[in-house]
Specification:
Blueprint (H helix, E strand, L loop, with lengths): L3 E14 L2 E14 L3 E5 L6 H8 L7 E6 L2 E2 L5 H11 E5 L10 H9 L6 H14 L16 H13 L5 E5 L7 H16 L3 E5 L3 H4 L4 E6 L2 E7 L8 H15 L2
Parallel strand pairs: 3-8, 3-9, 6-7, 7-8
Antiparallel strand pairs: 1-2, 1-4, 4-5, 9-10
Helix pairs in contact: 3-4, 3-5, 5-6
Amino acid sequence: MKEIILRTNKLCKSFSIGGVQQHVLKNLDLEINKGDFTIIMGSSGSGKSTLLYVLSGMDIPTVGDVYLGEENIAKLNNDKLALIRRANCGFVFQSIYLLDNMNILDNVLTSGLLANRDKKEVFLKAQNLLLSVGLKEQDFMKFPNQLSGGEKQRVAIVRAIINNPMLLFADEPTGALNSTSSTQVLNNFTRLNEEGQSIIMVTHDIKTALRGNRILYVKDGTICGEIDLKPYKEEENTLRLQKLQQFLGEMGW
């Protein structure tokens, strides 16, 4: 039986725009299992990014509960929530947000030392992780403006996983990358998932979505369908693509 590491109960999120309440998420119930690579898809304005931010504790639901492990993060104050996110969540965004005045090794170390005061241990781990995503040792002292978009995103992945997060959250992580860089980044997400990392990713890109084993489709603030593609295997891409395209067609994509 799979272990549930995140679940929601009657999750709602509303915003007031011009004095009018906009209901973005509506009574949404969801369970995320350990080891899953969950993809959230949906049209623009469907609520998929809002869902990601509420699940990760970066935003607070208007009504309802979000349990990360046994902790209801929807009921925590900002200080406690920040500690929970630091210990349990990693984030990769379309905009990479590396610190331009630090080299890439220091960008990773800054994040790692927030959770672990053993500088030698964090230093060795940061080096090994940077190598594992395809960066070279001579790149470690480079600054973000000396890297390609794909290289910067791989640094962002390392920064996100340096503290061994329970969940890795990604919002359109390949949205600003070319095809070659996208594939390199996706290969790293796939490898991490094969090693046991649980991932929740928002994307509008079918090629990216193929990497997930569970695809959720969000429409008008609710999950209106899902499909199980099983763990990713490159040799099964054609069949996976057919299944996903059929599913998305049924959802009105």
